[in-house]
Amino acid sequence: MKRDVVIIGAGVVGSSIARELSRYDLGITVLEKASDVCEGTSKANSGIVHAGFDAVPGTLKARFNIAGSHMMEALSRELDFPYKRNGSLVLCFSESDLPKLEELKKRGETNGVEGVTILTGDEVRAKEPAISDEVVAALFAPTGAIVCPFGLTIAMAENAAVNGAEFRFNEAVTAIEKTGEGFKVTTQTDIYECKAVINAAGVYADTVHNMVCDDKLSITARKGEYCLYDKKVGGTVSSTIFQLPGAYGKGVLVTPTVHGNLLLGPTATDTLDKEEVNTTADGLNTLQATAGKSIKAVPYKSVITSFAGLRAHEEGGDFIVGESSVKGFFDAAGIESPGLSAAPAIGEFLAREVALSLEAVRKTDFIAKRKGIPNVALASKEERDRLIKENPMYANVICRCELVTEGEIVDAIKRPVGATTLDGVKRRTRAGMGRCQAGFCSPKTLEILARELGKDITEITKHGAGSEFLTGHKGL
Amino acid sequence: MNTKIAIIGGGPAGLAAAVSAYDAGVKDLLILERDDKLGGILNQCIHNGFGLHTFKEELTGPEYAERFIEKVRERGIESLLKTIVVDISKETDGLVVTAMSAEKGMFEIHAQSVILAMGCRERPRGALNTPGYRPAGIYSAGTAQRYVNIEGKMPGKEVVILGSGDIGLIMARRMTLEGAHVKAVAELMPYSGGLKRNIVQCLDDFGIPLKLSTTVTDIKGKDRVESVTLSKVDAKNQPIPGTEEEIPCDTLLLSCGLLPENELSGMLGVELSPVTGGATVDESLETSVPGVFACGNVLHVHDLVDYVSGEASEAGKHAAEYVLKSTPGTSETPIRLETGNGVRYTVPSFVRPSRLEQLLTVRFRVGNVYKNPEICVYLGDKCLQRRKKQICAPGEMEQVIIKKTDIETMAPGETIRIAIETE
CA of B398 to nearest chain A CA: how many angstroms apart? Predict the structure, then answer.
């Protein structure tokens, strides 16, 4: 198959690049080894738009974080995904650490983060009453924000698809060969000939890069475990609460999610297995104890789920973004934190680089706006009434905890880059994300998926082949 | 819409409450049910054993439900199916129930009284914070029950069950009968959380081992469950290192407790008990919001549906009395019920003697297994009753009945205390 550009990886970075590149008159294919977009690092992270005070000035992390953070709010309106500027606090627990807090403030100012100030312990507690009495001061960054990582990724992917980018799932790249005019990209099922390759393969970006380039990359998967709590305690804090950074990243944070839950995490442990997304008793205990330092009381009893994600930590410690040593092969590698915040800016930058390199022209019919799936739970009475009149399926509640209707689930399946799995429906609609964790809704969601996809219910999976829910029909 | 009494939920509690409210003289009633049929969770409980107390025979869940659905039909009580209640709030002269359905869109029902009968949900894996992977093959027992009994599908072949609640025990038998291999039932506590008869009929009769003081400490499998690791726990329910046993399986079912589903009650401002998760109610099963009654598993989790029906009948009758303004005066100071040794909670939490007819039924659960205990009722310092039992266990609901005439002898400020005493 001949394409202009092949993007490897449909996480937040790959989807962002696809969306930005779909502004140009180019044939774009996104190859993803999983069954859906947003199946790797992008689905299991803090959901934070970092203000940008943390990254070392002059690094790509700093540059793309600041730029991404600036873009995010407008992007959330353009592409209709949940975003909230809630501000962030970095807590300082001892007078002797105050110079570090000052340093962080200076770093923020150097990076161009607006409005960073230092608050006293009492000012912090006046703002956030749940903050621990041990806190002596904190750095406040009003531009810190929270975002739905699924919403962001899916919105960009959908918009890219609407603008002609092709997404191919269940296709892992097995080889890349440099040819005269470009590259030959091989997957288990196909061969793609293209002029440019963009590597956005997350924790596997080293493998993909090393298929082509002589200067090798080495990416370590750094596991982060999280606990998510019931919306009942979602108001524990309103800002995102960090602790002064240690050697392993930004430490454990306490934050509301953009959907109103409370989130604690992540831990940081390096792992050799790049699929090791299990939680551990130690990890969950540690993260609750460590995060517990930030607040007066951890609402242990209100936990509704725990999960783990893997960040792609590159040896050099910075993002690797741009054309590699091989002409036409571009990297977006080592995209660990603040990768989610940076993704829109990385996409914009790389798309421009690739377009320049291919001398591509901008389309005149690019559709910049995207409208998301209607959200019955958040709709006003009048709006709900209108939706139900338009389509009665918006009254059939499937997920009672999050009030997600059949109409929304069908939408999620039928949209561009639509859901084909239970997890796909969940990330697009929140069905199953509530306090009963899909106990009541999963049988119904499976039925809807089977009906809409024209499959037998036993073929429906959680996240792709091998993760079927049902082992067979009764009596067979 | 207007109605005298709106009943939220058309399961066993809602049905019995509707019938008794009707029989007590309020004909203008409305049952609101989110499913496409009445009967609630009974519809998926195809095993027998229901109705021994109410009908003196062993019925299956759907049969038991049908008996009450028939009573509702005979009386011409209106029900709205596929209708989900999204809010209940107070208004000057009653209550407003906001609901949603395909047929009616968003609509309001103005009612003088509301009976909460929404039932309960299962505690999911997430709430247990069980470590491990998150593959397909982990279901709450009730979800698996729905797959097998309603959808006719098998959720797995090689099964481990965590928790010995009744649904888990019933599902151990059901999965076995359907051809699956149930390898073990693990229970965190040193005793089962289910009914004794279910241990015998669902585990012992099929040779399924019940491993007490045991929990799941790891789940392996990236796409589908491949194994679970069981560990023994110490007296503080903490896993004991070195006791791990990895059991290959493709399915983990969870039967680790039921939680009353009181989100609507919370929105309405109904006071909830931190112990049961259900409303705190008086002798009439009226909640802290006047005119709002609660019954069944949304009030506290029951062991037998017969008791749900009994309690719901009471709630229905009292709701009717409330609507008909025949409730005796409420100016008196209520008498509190206290939980003594071994008693986790009582329903009701307080009583107004003048509202009682003849007898007060107090339902409760114990917090541990007691052999040869005495269930004692104290009115103030005075021991009124002492009833010997062979055994009291957390899996089984207990009750005591106190005469109104005895309660009337109590001095002001005294409380009623229920306690478990052993020699």
Answer: 27
Find the CATH number of the domain harbouring A275: 3.30.9.10
Measured at the alpha carbon of residue A141, what is the angle toward residues A138 and A145, in degrees to the nearest 5?
Answer: 125
Residue A203 lies in a domain: yes
Whole-number pLDDT of residue B418: 98
**B131 contacts chain A (CB < 8 A):** yes
Do residues B5 and B51 both lie within one domain? yes
Instruction: State ipTM.
Output: 0.95
Is the minimum CB–CB distance between A450 and chain B shorter than 8 Å?
A: no
- Number of domains forming the structure of chain A: 3
Residue B150 belongs to domain spanning: 124-256
User: Please, which residues bridge with residue A120 across strands?
Assistant: A137
Residue A259 annotated among the catalytic residues of the structure: no
Per-residue pLDDT at A476 exceeds 70: no
Residues in chain B, pLDDT under 50 = none
What average pLDDT does the segment A352-376 reach? 97
In a domain, A470, yes or no: no
* CB contacts < 8 A (A, B): 141
- Please pick, among A50, A70, A209, A259, the residue that the annotation labels catalytic: A50
pLDDT of residue B333: 86
Contacts of A377 in chain B (CB under 8 A): none
Residue A54 inside a domain? The answer is no
Q: Is the pLDDT of residue A216 over 80?
A: yes
User: What is d(CA B119, CA B138) in angstroms, rounded to the nearest whole number?
Assistant: 23
Tell me how close the Cα of A253 comes to any Cα of chain B, in angstroms: 19
If asked whether residues B252 and B321 sit together in one domain, one would say no
Enumerate the residues of chain A whose CB falls inside 8 A of the CB of residue B140: 439
**pLDDT number for residue B327:** 66
Q: Does A271 touch chain B (CB under 8 A)?
A: no
Task: Report pLDDT digits (tens) over A28-41.
Answer: 999 999 999 999 99
Are A232 and A300 contained in the same domain?
yes
Query: Is there a domain that residue A51 lies in?
Result: no
Q: Do residue B130 and residue B243 come from a single domain?
A: yes
Residues B341 and B323 in one domain: no
